[in-house]
């Protein structure tokens, strides 16, 4: 039985869609806000996720962005009333595979989900998530990296922070966004912790850690990764 995570704050829509999925043979786990969605996603396996954008606690965009730091494989479709082109573009940039606007016909949602699942199941192999910049190389699937110190292993938090920065390369990522995306929404470390991680990245990957060219500080805001 395929499992769906359905994240929707409107009770009537959530109950109706859940019932229809169950009639189609899916096992459905629901969440009415972003925090619960992140908790379910981190603790359970799902074959597909259906996520509303405008959620209490944590927005759907933030939910998907955080999920994609550690899970690139599970298909995700946004189901939302936000129907502007820039909203769809932002949703896809955050890591969603599809985007369906409300009001919608359930048959269309079901068709899109089945196609996403079929496409995922046909993948012959999972390719390692490799990222290279300069003479450096990072495998986000195994946390193995190559840099100034040769081959070494990143911690999970280091890999998550590095992935966040590299996926948003050229953009300034605030300390608050880093804390929310990497450390979660319940317990925040001090911002000094982030500074120490960036210092480690410079030591790992910069030709001259004192004059960084990849991991740049933006005073009063956060950090930016540049290739």
TrEMBL record:
The modification 4-aspartylphosphate is found at residue 52. Residues 128-227 form the OmpR/PhoB-type domain. SUPFAM superfamilies: C-terminal effector domain of the bipartite response regulators (SSF46894), CheY-like (SSF52172). InterPro entries: CheY-like_superfamily, OmpR/PhoB-type_DNA-bd, Sig_transdc_resp-reg_C-effctor, Sig_transdc_resp-reg_receiver, WalR-like, WH-like_DNA-bd_sf. Residues 3-117 form the Response regulatory domain. Residues 128-227 bind DNA. Keywords: DNA-binding, Phosphoprotein, Transcription, Transcription regulation, Two-component regulatory system. Transmembrane segments: none annotated. SMART domains: REC (SM00448), Trans_reg_C (SM00862). It holds the Pfam family Response_reg. This is Response regulator SaeR. It comes from Neolewinella maritima.
């Amino acid at each position: 039985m395929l499992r769906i995570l359905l994240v929707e704050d409107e009770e009537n829509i959530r109950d109706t869609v859940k019932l229809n999925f169950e009639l189609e043979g899916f096992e459905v786990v629901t969440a009415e806000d972003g925090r619960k969605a992140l908790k379910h996603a981190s603790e359970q396996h799902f074959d597909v996720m259906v996520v509303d954008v405008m959620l209490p606690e944590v927005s759907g965009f933030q939910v998907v962005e955080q999920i994609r730091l550690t899970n690139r494989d599970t298909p995700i479709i946004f189901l939302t009333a936000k129907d502007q082109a820039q909203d769809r573009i932002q949703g896809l940039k955050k890591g969603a595979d599809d985007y369906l606007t409300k009001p919608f016909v359930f048959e269309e949602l079901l068709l899109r989900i089945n196609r996403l699942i079929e496409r995922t199941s046909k993948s012959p192999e999972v390719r390692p998530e490799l990222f290279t910049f300069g003479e450096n190389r990072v495998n986000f699937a195994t946390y193995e990296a190559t840099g100034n110190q040769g081959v070494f292993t990143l911690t999970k938090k280091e890999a998550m922070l590095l992935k966040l920065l590299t996926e948003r390369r050229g953009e300034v990522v605030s300390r608050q966004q880093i804390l929310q995306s990497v450390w979660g929404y319940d317990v925040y470390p001090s911002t000094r912790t982030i500074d120490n991680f960036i210092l480690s990245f410079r030591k790992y990957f910069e030709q001259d850690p004192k004059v960084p060219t990849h991991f740049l500080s933006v005073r009063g805001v956060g950090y930016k990764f540049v290739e």
